[in-house]
Amino acid sequence: MKILISADMEGATGVTWPADVLPGGPQWERCRPMFTSDVNAAVTGFFEGGADEVLINEAHWTMRNLLLERLDDRAEMLTGRHKSLSMVEGVQRGDIDGVAFVGYHTGAGTEGVLAHTYLANSITGVWLNGKRASEGMLNAHVVAEYGVPVVLVTGDDKTIVDAHDYAPQAKGVAVKDYVSRYAAVCRTPQRTAADIRAAAKEATALAVRHEPVSGGPFTIELEFDAEHLAGAATVVPGVAPSGERRVAYTTETMFDGIRCFKAVTTLVSAAVEEQYG
Hints:
- The chain is α/β, with parallel strands linked by helices and 277 residues long.
- The chain has helices at residues 26-48, 135-144, 157-166, 189-203, 227-233, 254-270, and strands spanning 2-7, 53-58, 76-78, 98-104, 123-128, 131-132, 150-156, 171-180, 183-186, 218-224, 240-243, 246-251.
């Protein structure tokens, strides 16, 4: 049995504001051990539950945040950027039995600590087939196409509620409770590690591959905080205006859907000017 952990940072223990997750600063350095603790707890729990292998895919920002030297020796880590499937890279190898979303968060325009979808700002909402979508929902549809279930989700309490929609069978662990986008009631790393470990151990039983799910076609719509960003997004073939500050595109698979999403967000981020956005 092999588990893939997709590890994001905004939903990690103790993280509540931008300085906690922006690489290079002292607060980021302070939060890296807590992020690593969450991931380690999941690794330990999965092995206790009977997993034979655990692959961790770094999924935050530069994708170079976890402390490799502090990880459980039994795990392996895929780190660095420019991966074909970004946050769920590795699932396409065909040997993954279950996926865990560790340190996840809610989507752009919703309640949740550091809520966003791919870009920290600029995107004010994302909809998948008319339903507001978080990174978790988008990634869950990707892994479903490979017959892999989401078995564990950790983040703030709003993230766990969001996960009930796209992975109702998954075990959920809230490491903090939402107060505002930049405030939360946090539990200590010792408490959250124990909770994540126990949930991962139970979640291992859910790691059973199923027939690939093809839920397409998929229409993804994005709303931006400025009209010029919508214009920039339409440079990507197939992406067209769909409303004020909105664009949309349709793909037959989520493999293509998430790759197009990645192209759109890359172009949009390059079109943002300092101060005025």
